[in-house]
Amino acid sequence: MKILIVGAGGTLGKAVAAELGQRHEIIRAGRSSGDVQVDLRDGKSVEAMYDKVGELDAVVCTAGKVPFAPLDELTEDKYLEGINDKLLGQVRLVQAGMDKLRERGSFTLITGILTEQPILAGACASMVNGAVEAYVRAAAIELPRGLRINVVSPNVLTESMAGYGPFFRGFEPVDAARAALAFSRSVEGLRTGQVYKVW
Which among 45, 40, 57, 52 has a CA at the least distance from the CA of 4? Predict the structure, then answer.
């Protein structure tokens, strides 16, 4: 398969590329690195990326940023920052990519454990993750030509604990390589509308 990985330069993206790259052709995309550049916050940038890479069998997203701040510091602008990046960014990938995927191709998006297990300063992340998962369930029943869509929801990564550890006291982190297996399950399996939890 020819697989586009958006966010391939990040910790999880590298692990997913290593896992799927054993069996498939990988095209790496990132905001400032990779085979092709893309800014998920810009619809025209997403469309330009698809024009460059041509037809695909699968699109994987391991990218998306949300602000972490106490509830009383989450301004409307901060909420919109997370919505435009991690939520609408992934929606743009799907909407612009439907015509670029070959028949029975797939999208695999990213959320996280905060959808169901909130933490202090994580209200925006929980909100955005929940919206992405709702979108995946809804899109799955409407995608044309046998296209599939799933989402992977990992716990905090072992490799990211140096930076995110203070937010995730008491959580048992997972290795990026283990989380990458869920992306393989989505891309190489047959199910659609699923949330693959790696907790």
Answer: 57
pLDDT at 155: 98
Which residues contact residue 180 at a Cβ distance below 8 angstroms, ignoring those fewer than 6 apart?
12, 15, 16, 18, 19, 20
What is the spatial distance between Cα 20 and Cα 5, in angstroms, rounded to a whole number? Answer: 10
8: its two tokens? 């391939």
Q: Where are the beta strands (DSSP E) in the chain?
A: 2-6, 25-30, 36-37, 56-61, 101-110, 148-154, 195-198
Q: What is the pLDDT of residues 81-100, one digit of tens each?
A: 999 999 999 999 999 999 99
pLDDT digits (tens, 9 = 90+) for 131-162: 999 999 999 999 999 999 999 999 999 999 99
What phi and psi values does residue 59 have, to the nearest 5 degrees?
A: -125, 125
Q: How far apart are CA 26 and CA 183, in angstroms?
A: 13
* Model pTM score: 0.97
CA separation for the pair 73, 87 (Å, rounded):
20
Asked if residue 129 lies in contact with residue 114, where contact means CB atoms within 8 angstroms, the answer is yes
